[in-house]
Design goal:
With 396 residues, this protein is an alpha/beta fold. 43% of the residues lie in helices and 18% in strands. It has two domains: 155 residues, Rossmann fold (3-Layer(aba) Sandwich); 219 residues, Rossmann fold. Strand 5, helix 5 and strand 6 form a beta-alpha-beta unit. The termini are far apart. The site of pyridoxal-5'-phosphate has 19 residues, from helix 11 and helix 15.
Protein backbone atom coordinates (compact mmCIF):
# COMPACT_ATOMS: atom_id res chain seq x y z
CA UNK A 1 0.00 0.00 0.00
CA UNK A 2 1.57 3.28 -1.18
CA UNK A 3 -0.90 5.99 -2.08
CA UNK A 4 -2.63 6.12 1.27
CA UNK A 5 0.28 5.20 3.52
CA UNK A 6 1.19 7.17 6.62
CA UNK A 7 3.87 9.84 6.09
CA UNK A 8 7.17 10.01 7.97
CA UNK A 9 5.62 12.24 10.66
CA UNK A 10 2.76 9.84 11.27
CA UNK A 11 0.05 11.66 9.32
CA UNK A 12 -2.58 10.61 6.84
CA UNK A 13 -3.29 14.01 5.28
CA UNK A 14 -4.56 16.18 8.14
CA UNK A 15 -5.00 13.29 10.55
CA UNK A 16 -2.72 11.34 12.86
CA UNK A 17 0.50 12.37 14.57
CA UNK A 18 1.68 11.50 18.06
CA UNK A 19 0.33 13.78 20.79
CA UNK A 20 1.72 12.17 23.92
CA UNK A 21 2.80 13.40 27.34
CA UNK A 22 6.48 14.18 27.81
CA UNK A 23 7.16 11.03 29.90
CA UNK A 24 6.08 8.78 27.02
CA UNK A 25 8.17 10.54 24.41
CA UNK A 26 11.03 8.02 24.70
CA UNK A 27 8.67 5.01 24.46
CA UNK A 28 6.88 6.34 21.41
CA UNK A 29 10.18 7.28 19.78
CA UNK A 30 11.50 3.76 20.46
CA UNK A 31 8.42 2.28 18.78
CA UNK A 32 8.54 4.70 15.85
CA UNK A 33 12.20 3.97 15.23
CA UNK A 34 11.88 0.19 15.47
CA UNK A 35 8.44 -1.09 14.54
CA UNK A 36 8.99 -1.37 10.80
CA UNK A 37 12.43 -2.91 11.10
CA UNK A 38 11.08 -5.52 13.53
CA UNK A 39 7.80 -6.42 11.90
CA UNK A 40 9.36 -6.63 8.45
CA UNK A 41 12.25 -8.80 9.68
CA UNK A 42 12.37 -12.46 8.71
CA UNK A 43 12.36 -13.90 12.26
CA UNK A 44 9.31 -11.79 13.18
CA UNK A 45 7.43 -12.73 10.02
CA UNK A 46 8.21 -16.42 10.52
CA UNK A 47 6.99 -16.41 14.14
CA UNK A 48 3.95 -14.23 13.37
CA UNK A 49 2.78 -16.29 10.40
CA UNK A 50 3.38 -19.59 12.16
CA UNK A 51 1.20 -18.51 15.08
CA UNK A 52 -1.47 -17.14 12.75
CA UNK A 53 -1.60 -20.51 11.03
CA UNK A 54 -1.30 -22.97 13.90
CA UNK A 55 -2.75 -20.97 16.80
CA UNK A 56 -5.27 -18.57 15.29
CA UNK A 57 -6.37 -20.95 12.52
CA UNK A 58 -5.52 -18.84 9.48
CA UNK A 59 -6.09 -18.45 6.64
CA UNK A 60 -9.69 -17.67 7.53
CA UNK A 61 -12.02 -18.92 4.76
CA UNK A 62 -13.42 -16.68 2.05
CA UNK A 63 -16.96 -17.98 1.87
CA UNK A 64 -19.40 -17.38 -1.00
CA UNK A 65 -22.69 -16.77 0.81
CA UNK A 66 -25.06 -18.19 -1.82
CA UNK A 67 -28.43 -17.49 -0.26
CA UNK A 68 -27.41 -14.01 0.81
CA UNK A 69 -26.07 -13.37 -2.70
CA UNK A 70 -29.32 -14.56 -4.25
CA UNK A 71 -31.32 -12.25 -2.05
CA UNK A 72 -29.30 -9.17 -2.97
CA UNK A 73 -28.63 -10.04 -6.60
CA UNK A 74 -24.84 -9.90 -6.49
CA UNK A 75 -21.97 -12.11 -5.33
CA UNK A 76 -21.28 -11.74 -1.62
CA UNK A 77 -18.14 -13.27 -0.20
CA UNK A 78 -17.64 -13.27 3.56
CA UNK A 79 -14.11 -13.08 4.96
CA UNK A 80 -14.57 -15.28 8.00
CA UNK A 81 -12.64 -13.55 10.79
CA UNK A 82 -15.35 -14.91 13.09
CA UNK A 83 -13.66 -18.30 12.85
CA UNK A 84 -10.39 -17.10 14.39
CA UNK A 85 -9.31 -18.24 17.85
CA UNK A 86 -11.06 -15.96 20.40
CA UNK A 87 -13.78 -15.18 17.87
CA UNK A 88 -12.71 -12.07 15.99
CA UNK A 89 -9.98 -10.31 14.01
CA UNK A 90 -8.45 -8.76 17.14
CA UNK A 91 -6.10 -11.70 17.73
CA UNK A 92 -4.20 -10.92 14.48
CA UNK A 93 -3.09 -7.67 16.09
CA UNK A 94 -2.36 -8.93 19.60
CA UNK A 95 -0.21 -11.80 18.28
CA UNK A 96 1.85 -9.26 16.34
CA UNK A 97 2.20 -6.76 19.16
CA UNK A 98 3.15 -9.34 21.81
CA UNK A 99 5.97 -10.53 19.54
CA UNK A 100 7.06 -6.92 19.14
CA UNK A 101 6.92 -6.34 22.91
CA UNK A 102 9.06 -9.40 23.48
CA UNK A 103 11.57 -8.17 20.91
CA UNK A 104 11.74 -4.80 22.69
CA UNK A 105 12.47 -6.59 25.98
CA UNK A 106 9.23 -5.53 27.70
CA UNK A 107 7.81 -7.82 30.39
CA UNK A 108 4.60 -6.15 31.52
CA UNK A 109 1.65 -5.82 29.14
CA UNK A 110 -1.24 -3.40 29.53
CA UNK A 111 -4.35 -2.98 27.39
CA UNK A 112 -7.69 -1.18 27.33
CA UNK A 113 -10.93 -2.89 26.44
CA UNK A 114 -14.56 -1.95 25.84
CA UNK A 115 -16.68 -5.02 25.25
CA UNK A 116 -13.77 -7.12 26.41
CA UNK A 117 -12.88 -8.61 23.03
CA UNK A 118 -9.49 -6.90 22.82
CA UNK A 119 -8.94 -7.65 26.51
CA UNK A 120 -9.55 -11.36 25.90
CA UNK A 121 -7.31 -11.34 22.81
CA UNK A 122 -4.55 -9.65 24.83
CA UNK A 123 -4.94 -11.91 27.88
CA UNK A 124 -4.79 -14.87 25.50
CA UNK A 125 -1.44 -13.93 23.93
CA UNK A 126 -0.02 -13.00 27.35
CA UNK A 127 -0.86 -16.50 28.59
CA UNK A 128 0.71 -17.88 25.44
CA UNK A 129 3.94 -15.96 26.04
CA UNK A 130 3.94 -16.15 29.85
CA UNK A 131 3.74 -12.38 30.31
CA UNK A 132 2.07 -10.30 33.00
CA UNK A 133 -1.20 -8.75 31.77
CA UNK A 134 -3.27 -5.87 33.11
CA UNK A 135 -6.48 -4.88 31.36
CA UNK A 136 -8.21 -1.58 32.01
CA UNK A 137 -11.96 -1.71 31.55
CA UNK A 138 -14.71 0.78 32.37
CA UNK A 139 -16.63 -0.26 35.48
CA UNK A 140 -19.89 -0.16 33.54
CA UNK A 141 -18.45 -2.46 30.86
CA UNK A 142 -17.15 -4.81 33.58
CA UNK A 143 -20.73 -5.19 34.69
CA UNK A 144 -22.17 -5.51 31.18
CA UNK A 145 -19.56 -7.97 29.93
CA UNK A 146 -19.25 -10.47 32.77
CA UNK A 147 -18.30 -13.42 30.61
CA UNK A 148 -15.36 -11.67 28.98
CA UNK A 149 -14.14 -10.46 32.38
CA UNK A 150 -14.24 -14.04 33.62
CA UNK A 151 -12.38 -15.26 30.53
CA UNK A 152 -9.63 -12.69 31.06
CA UNK A 153 -9.32 -13.71 34.70
CA UNK A 154 -9.18 -17.38 33.81
CA UNK A 155 -6.42 -16.53 31.33
CA UNK A 156 -4.45 -15.01 34.21
CA UNK A 157 -4.98 -11.31 33.49
CA UNK A 158 -5.79 -8.70 36.11
CA UNK A 159 -8.87 -6.72 35.12
CA UNK A 160 -8.93 -3.21 36.58
CA UNK A 161 -12.37 -1.54 36.63
CA UNK A 162 -12.19 2.18 35.80
CA UNK A 163 -14.66 4.40 37.62
CA UNK A 164 -13.84 7.78 36.05
CA UNK A 165 -16.00 9.54 33.43
CA UNK A 166 -18.64 7.42 31.75
CA UNK A 167 -16.90 4.27 33.01
CA UNK A 168 -16.56 2.93 29.46
CA UNK A 169 -13.90 2.49 26.75
CA UNK A 170 -12.66 6.09 26.53
CA UNK A 171 -12.06 6.18 30.29
CA UNK A 172 -10.35 2.79 30.25
CA UNK A 173 -8.01 4.10 27.54
CA UNK A 174 -7.18 7.21 29.60
CA UNK A 175 -6.32 4.97 32.54
CA UNK A 176 -4.15 2.66 30.44
CA UNK A 177 -2.21 5.70 29.17
CA UNK A 178 -1.80 6.88 32.78
CA UNK A 179 -0.41 3.46 33.74
CA UNK A 180 2.02 3.58 30.82
CA UNK A 181 3.22 7.00 31.98
CA UNK A 182 4.07 5.60 35.41
CA UNK A 183 5.82 2.46 34.09
CA UNK A 184 7.49 3.54 30.86
CA UNK A 185 10.53 1.28 31.35
CA UNK A 186 9.15 -2.26 31.47
CA UNK A 187 5.62 -1.81 30.09
CA UNK A 188 4.29 -2.30 26.59
CA UNK A 189 0.82 -0.97 25.75
CA UNK A 190 -1.09 -3.18 23.27
CA UNK A 191 -3.63 -0.88 21.63
CA UNK A 192 -6.59 -2.73 20.14
CA UNK A 193 -7.39 -0.72 17.03
CA UNK A 194 -5.95 1.64 14.40
CA UNK A 195 -6.05 4.49 16.90
CA UNK A 196 -3.60 6.16 19.28
CA UNK A 197 -0.34 7.97 18.59
CA UNK A 198 1.84 7.15 15.59
CA UNK A 199 3.02 4.42 14.94
CA UNK A 200 0.03 2.50 16.36
CA UNK A 201 -2.47 3.18 13.55
CA UNK A 202 0.01 2.10 10.88
CA UNK A 203 1.34 -0.80 12.91
CA UNK A 204 -2.13 -2.21 13.65
CA UNK A 205 -3.18 -1.74 10.00
CA UNK A 206 -0.13 -3.72 8.87
CA UNK A 207 -0.78 -6.49 11.39
CA UNK A 208 -4.40 -6.73 10.22
CA UNK A 209 -3.49 -6.50 6.52
CA UNK A 210 -3.20 -10.30 6.51
CA UNK A 211 -6.99 -10.18 5.97
CA UNK A 212 -6.79 -8.58 2.51
CA UNK A 213 -3.56 -10.38 1.67
CA UNK A 214 -5.42 -13.68 2.01
CA UNK A 215 -8.62 -12.41 0.44
CA UNK A 216 -6.81 -11.39 -2.74
CA UNK A 217 -5.32 -14.85 -3.15
CA UNK A 218 -8.59 -16.56 -2.22
CA UNK A 219 -10.70 -14.52 -4.61
CA UNK A 220 -8.29 -15.44 -7.38
CA UNK A 221 -8.94 -19.11 -6.59
CA UNK A 222 -12.73 -18.66 -6.47
CA UNK A 223 -13.29 -16.20 -9.29
CA UNK A 224 -10.09 -16.03 -11.30
CA UNK A 225 -9.69 -12.35 -10.36
CA UNK A 226 -7.79 -10.71 -7.51
CA UNK A 227 -9.90 -7.60 -7.22
CA UNK A 228 -13.54 -7.46 -6.13
CA UNK A 229 -15.78 -4.53 -7.07
CA UNK A 230 -16.47 -3.69 -3.44
CA UNK A 231 -14.86 -4.31 -0.08
CA UNK A 232 -17.09 -3.72 2.91
CA UNK A 233 -16.37 -3.54 6.64
CA UNK A 234 -17.60 -1.98 9.87
CA UNK A 235 -15.53 0.70 11.61
CA UNK A 236 -15.15 1.30 15.31
CA UNK A 237 -11.57 2.44 15.60
CA UNK A 238 -11.01 0.93 12.19
CA UNK A 239 -8.75 -2.10 12.50
CA UNK A 240 -10.79 -4.82 10.79
CA UNK A 241 -11.66 -2.32 8.07
CA UNK A 242 -8.00 -1.33 7.65
CA UNK A 243 -7.05 -5.00 7.33
CA UNK A 244 -9.85 -5.69 4.86
CA UNK A 245 -8.98 -2.75 2.56
CA UNK A 246 -5.19 -2.54 2.97
CA UNK A 247 -4.08 -4.38 -0.15
CA UNK A 248 -6.91 -2.96 -2.26
CA UNK A 249 -6.51 0.74 -1.51
CA UNK A 250 -4.07 1.48 -4.32
CA UNK A 251 -6.45 -0.21 -6.79
CA UNK A 252 -8.92 2.58 -7.39
CA UNK A 253 -11.34 0.23 -9.18
CA UNK A 254 -12.12 -1.40 -5.83
CA UNK A 255 -14.82 0.59 -4.05
CA UNK A 256 -14.40 0.87 -0.29
CA UNK A 257 -17.62 0.89 1.70
CA UNK A 258 -17.58 1.31 5.47
CA UNK A 259 -20.31 1.15 8.08
CA UNK A 260 -20.09 3.17 11.26
CA UNK A 261 -22.55 2.87 14.12
CA UNK A 262 -25.37 5.39 13.98
CA UNK A 263 -26.87 4.13 17.25
CA UNK A 264 -30.43 5.46 17.37
CA UNK A 265 -29.66 7.76 14.40
CA UNK A 266 -26.97 10.30 13.45
CA UNK A 267 -29.13 13.27 14.48
CA UNK A 268 -30.51 11.84 17.71
CA UNK A 269 -27.54 12.61 19.93
CA UNK A 270 -27.42 8.87 20.66
CA UNK A 271 -24.82 7.86 18.10
CA UNK A 272 -21.26 6.70 17.53
CA UNK A 273 -21.09 7.84 13.89
CA UNK A 274 -17.86 9.81 14.21
CA UNK A 275 -17.17 10.31 10.50
CA UNK A 276 -20.67 11.74 10.01
CA UNK A 277 -20.82 13.90 13.10
CA UNK A 278 -17.24 14.39 14.34
CA UNK A 279 -14.95 17.43 14.06
CA UNK A 280 -11.19 17.73 14.09
CA UNK A 281 -9.80 17.18 17.57
CA UNK A 282 -7.27 15.19 19.53
CA UNK A 283 -8.07 11.97 21.34
CA UNK A 284 -5.73 9.38 22.80
CA UNK A 285 -2.64 10.78 21.13
CA UNK A 286 -4.02 11.26 17.64
CA UNK A 287 -5.46 14.20 15.69
CA UNK A 288 -8.62 12.90 14.10
CA UNK A 289 -12.38 13.31 13.82
CA UNK A 290 -13.93 13.37 17.23
CA UNK A 291 -17.48 13.70 18.54
CA UNK A 292 -17.32 16.89 20.58
CA UNK A 293 -19.46 19.81 21.67
CA UNK A 294 -18.76 23.50 20.96
CA UNK A 295 -16.34 23.69 23.87
CA UNK A 296 -14.37 20.71 22.59
CA UNK A 297 -15.72 18.42 25.31
CA UNK A 298 -16.09 14.84 24.13
CA UNK A 299 -19.68 13.78 23.52
CA UNK A 300 -20.33 10.33 24.96
CA UNK A 301 -20.97 7.93 22.10
CA UNK A 302 -23.82 5.46 21.95
CA UNK A 303 -24.23 2.25 19.97
CA UNK A 304 -25.86 -1.08 20.77
CA UNK A 305 -22.51 -2.55 19.78
CA UNK A 306 -19.85 -2.10 22.46
CA UNK A 307 -17.11 -2.65 19.87
CA UNK A 308 -18.18 0.37 17.81
CA UNK A 309 -18.98 2.63 20.73
CA UNK A 310 -16.01 5.04 20.48
CA UNK A 311 -16.10 8.84 20.07
CA UNK A 312 -13.04 8.90 17.76
CA UNK A 313 -11.97 7.12 14.58
CA UNK A 314 -8.62 5.94 13.31
CA UNK A 315 -6.81 8.71 11.37
CA UNK A 316 -6.51 6.55 8.24
CA UNK A 317 -10.29 6.32 8.01
CA UNK A 318 -10.80 10.03 8.69
CA UNK A 319 -8.46 10.68 5.76
CA UNK A 320 -9.98 8.12 3.35
CA UNK A 321 -13.44 9.54 3.97
CA UNK A 322 -12.24 13.12 3.52
CA UNK A 323 -10.51 12.48 0.17
CA UNK A 324 -13.44 10.38 -1.06
CA UNK A 325 -11.59 7.06 -1.23
CA UNK A 326 -14.19 5.47 1.03
CA UNK A 327 -17.95 5.77 1.16
CA UNK A 328 -19.19 5.69 4.73
CA UNK A 329 -22.71 4.73 5.81
CA UNK A 330 -24.15 5.28 9.26
CA UNK A 331 -26.04 2.13 10.25
CA UNK A 332 -28.56 2.20 13.10
CA UNK A 333 -28.96 -0.36 15.88
CA UNK A 334 -32.19 -1.60 14.29
CA UNK A 335 -30.66 -2.03 10.83
CA UNK A 336 -27.76 -3.98 12.32
CA UNK A 337 -30.06 -6.25 14.31
CA UNK A 338 -32.14 -6.99 11.21
CA UNK A 339 -28.99 -7.84 9.27
CA UNK A 340 -27.78 -10.14 12.06
CA UNK A 341 -31.03 -12.11 12.01
CA UNK A 342 -30.99 -12.25 8.25
CA UNK A 343 -27.48 -13.74 8.08
CA UNK A 344 -28.38 -16.25 10.77
CA UNK A 345 -31.53 -17.27 8.90
CA UNK A 346 -30.02 -17.46 5.42
CA UNK A 347 -26.54 -18.78 6.11
CA UNK A 348 -26.52 -20.30 9.60
CA UNK A 349 -23.91 -17.83 10.79
CA UNK A 350 -24.56 -15.70 13.87
CA UNK A 351 -22.44 -12.57 13.38
CA UNK A 352 -21.05 -10.22 16.01
CA UNK A 353 -23.29 -7.20 16.31
CA UNK A 354 -20.38 -5.05 15.07
CA UNK A 355 -20.07 -7.12 11.88
CA UNK A 356 -23.85 -6.90 11.42
CA UNK A 357 -23.41 -3.17 10.78
CA UNK A 358 -21.36 -4.06 7.69
CA UNK A 359 -23.99 -6.61 6.59
CA UNK A 360 -26.68 -3.92 6.77
CA UNK A 361 -24.98 -2.17 3.81
CA UNK A 362 -26.49 -4.88 1.58
CA UNK A 363 -29.94 -3.45 2.21
CA UNK A 364 -28.84 0.17 1.92
CA UNK A 365 -26.89 0.20 -1.32
CA UNK A 366 -27.81 -1.15 -4.76
CA UNK A 367 -25.41 -3.58 -6.41
CA UNK A 368 -25.31 -4.94 -9.97
CA UNK A 369 -25.73 -8.68 -10.72
CA UNK A 370 -22.09 -9.18 -11.71
CA UNK A 371 -20.69 -7.18 -8.78
CA UNK A 372 -18.34 -9.10 -6.52
CA UNK A 373 -18.39 -8.01 -2.87
CA UNK A 374 -15.96 -9.04 -0.16
CA UNK A 375 -17.35 -8.29 3.28
CA UNK A 376 -15.36 -8.63 6.48
CA UNK A 377 -17.27 -10.71 8.99
CA UNK A 378 -15.13 -9.35 11.82
CA UNK A 379 -16.41 -11.57 14.63
CA UNK A 380 -18.87 -14.16 15.84
CA UNK A 381 -22.04 -13.43 17.74
CA UNK A 382 -21.68 -15.64 20.80
CA UNK A 383 -21.14 -12.60 23.01
CA UNK A 384 -24.30 -10.96 21.64
CA UNK A 385 -26.78 -13.81 21.97
CA UNK A 386 -28.48 -12.32 25.00
CA UNK A 387 -28.99 -8.98 23.23
CA UNK A 388 -30.31 -10.72 20.12
CA UNK A 389 -32.77 -12.88 22.03
CA UNK A 390 -34.06 -10.01 24.15
CA UNK A 391 -34.75 -7.98 21.01
CA UNK A 392 -36.33 -10.91 19.24
CA UNK A 393 -38.72 -11.44 22.14
CA UNK A 394 -39.54 -7.75 22.24
CA UNK A 395 -40.31 -7.71 18.51
CA UNK A 396 -42.45 -10.83 18.31
C1 LIG B 1 -13.66 -4.64 18.32
C2 LIG B 1 -14.48 -5.12 17.21
C3 LIG B 1 -14.80 -4.30 16.11
C4 LIG B 1 -14.42 -2.85 16.03
O1 LIG B 1 -13.06 -2.58 16.03
P1 LIG B 1 -12.28 -2.14 14.73
O2 LIG B 1 -10.94 -1.76 15.24
O3 LIG B 1 -13.02 -0.99 14.11
O4 LIG B 1 -12.23 -3.31 13.83
C5 LIG B 1 -15.52 -4.84 15.05
N1 LIG B 1 -15.95 -6.12 15.08
C6 LIG B 1 -15.67 -6.94 16.12
C7 LIG B 1 -16.17 -8.35 16.08
C8 LIG B 1 -14.93 -6.47 17.22
O5 LIG B 1 -14.68 -7.30 18.23
Amino acid sequence: MKNYAVDSRGYYGDFGGAYVPEVLYENIKELQDNYLRIIESEPFQLAYRKLLQDYVGRPSPLYLAKRLSEKYGCKVYLKREDLNHTGAHKINNTIGQILLARELGKTRIIAETGAGQHGVATATVCALMGMECLVYMGALDVERQRVNVEKMQMLGATVIPVTSGNQTLKDATNEAIRDWCSHPQDTYYIIGSTVGPHPYPDMVARLQSIISEEAKRQLLEHEGVELPDYVIACVGGGSNAAGMIYHYLDHESVHVILAEAAGLGVDTGQTAATIHSGKLGIIHGSKTLLMQDEDGQIIEPYSISAGLDYPGIGPLHAHLAKVGRSEVFAVTDDQAIDAAFELTELEGIIPAIESAHALAILKTKKFAPDDILVLCLSGRGDKDIETYLQLKNKRS
